[in-house]
Structures are given as C-alpha cells and as structure tokens.
Design a protein that fits this description.
- This protein has four helices and six strands.
- By secondary structure, it is of the alpha+beta class.
- It has a six-stranded mixed β-sheet.
- The longest helix has 26 residues.
- About 15% of the residues have low confidence.
Length: about 140
C-alpha cells in the first residue's frame, strides 16, 4: 500500500511539472508584448535562450543572450518604442511564432519572434525587426 501511494505521489508531481511548463508557454506573449512596447530590454531578455539569432534591418547576428540584449538596447536607444501589439500567433508542437507591429522613433516596424518550447519552459530563439514597407497609394 505504501509503495502504491508513493508511486501515485511521484506521478502527480511529474504531471504537475508538465502543466507548469505548459502554463509558462501560454503566458510568455503578454509580458514580451509589454516589454517590447516599453523598450524594457532587461526584463525581455529574461525570456532569451542562452544563444539566439537577432536580426535587425536584415542584419543577422548569432549571439549570446547578453550580446542580444546589447543589440536590442542599441536599437531601442535609436528608436524609442511607443507601442507594440502582437497581431498573429502560430503554435506548433515545439515552437511558437508571433508577428507584431512596433511603433518606435516615429516609424513602423514588423517584429517576428520565434519561441522554442523546452523542458525548462519557453524561450525566445529568434527575433527579427524590419521596417514596415509603406503602402503605395494609387
């Protein structure tokens, strides 16, 4: 009887841990949206993986989370964010993809974020920032 109770208890801890990891994934986008909108690189970088790809204006950098933080801070120093809104999200088994519009420094940008789902939670693997192309009027 004792052995059976112990096994059930261990299984419940394992199940609770997997639910926690799943919850983290569902909860990543609201704070990421808030941190980008306010230009809060310090808090945003808490969601960075140890190594990630950050691309600004088609210039790609494979970098550590520390380097990515510096690159993103330099961007926000040049283009002060006023708002960021995620407009599209795609979820796959081990990946989440978000697309949003950033207004910063009087210009409009498209931000693409790739989030990898891992055992220890969800982390940003890739982030791209490009200027939004203006629409031509006819």
């Amino acid at each position: 009887m004792y052995k059976r109770t112990l096994i059930l208890l261990l299984l419940s801890f394992c199940f609770a841990g997997s639910l926690k990891a799943q919850q983290v994934c569902e909860d990543i986008l609201p704070p990421v949206e808030r941190y980008i909108s306010s230009g809060d690189v310090e808090n945003l970088s808490r969601w960075f993986d140890e190594a990630l790809e950050i691309t600004i204006f088609s210039r790609c950098n494979e970098s550590s989370s520390r380097q990515a933080r510096q690159i993103l801070q330099a961007f926000f120093d040049s283009y002060t964010p006023t708002s960021f809104k995620i407009s599209h999200v795609v979820e796959k088994p081990n990946l989440e993809y978000a697309l949003g519009g950033l207004q910063a420094g009087g210009e409009n940008f498209i931000v693409t974020i790739f989030i990898s789902k891992k055992e220890n939670g969800c982390l940003i693997q890739q982030m791209k920032i490009d200027k939004r192309k203006s629409r031509r009027r006819r």
